Amino acid sequence: MTMAILALNPKFNYRMDKPTDRVLPLLFSALFYYIGFYLFRNLNIMPVVKLFLISSSLVIIVLLIISFRWKISIHLASIGGIIGLLLAVSFRTGTNPLLLVTGAFLVAGIVGTARIYLEKHNLIQVVAGFMLGFLGIFLPVFFL
């Protein structure tokens, strides 16, 4: 929804070719994740949901800071975060999410390959995005 509203502005480049084009979408995303955390913080829900929301907000802020200097892959950071969440929850609960994790890694490979093929990112940007998302979600959810 935010992207649709931003796209109404003729000055906004929805292709986000320049690092400065990423600032507003990332700020709004971080804000919305934090609002979700703020609203859920006092509810009696699984703590992993709150950890995921606050960790996601922090990962997005780190992506925003990195994006000022370097074009890291936000797509792969998102997928890496999902895989990190799946693995952390499965390790904490002792479940076997083999199909989910396999499917998520398959999607990550397809998206990463597409980003490189379309020349939107290079291999280092894709791997860095994935690792930032993965570690930024996995570590807090698994250890806290």
Task: Compile the SSE list and pairings.
Blueprint: H1 2-7, H2 23-40, H3 47-67, H4 74-93, H5 98-117, H6 123-143
Helix pairs in contact: 2-3, 3-4, 3-6, 4-5, 4-6, 5-6
Give a verbal description of the structure.
- The chain is an all-alpha fold.
- It has one domain (20-143).
- Helix content is 74%, strand content 0%.
- The chain is built from six helices and no strands.
- The chain has helices at 2-7, 23-40, 47-67, 74-93, 98-117, 123-143.
- The longest helix is centred in the middle third of the chain and has 21 residues, at 47-67.
- The radius of gyration is 16 Å and the shape is globular.
- The relative contact order is 0.14.
- The model has no long low-confidence stretch (mean pLDDT 92).
pLDDT averaged residue by residue: 92
Given as residue ranges, the uncertain stretches (5+ residues, pLDDT < 50) are none
Largest sheet: none
* 3D shape: globular
Distance separating the two termini: 32 Å
Count the DSSP helices.
Answer: 6
Which value, in Å, is the CA radius of gyration?
Answer: 16 Å
- Class derived from helix and strand content: mainly alpha
Order of helices and strands: HHHHHH
Q: How many strand segments? A: 0
Helix content: over 70%
**Proportion of β residues?**
under 5%
Oligomer: single chain
Q: How many domains is the backbone divided into?
A: 1
Quick description:
The chain is mainly alpha-helical.
How would you describe this structure in keywords?
single chain, 144 residues, mainly alpha, 6 helices, 0% strand, globular
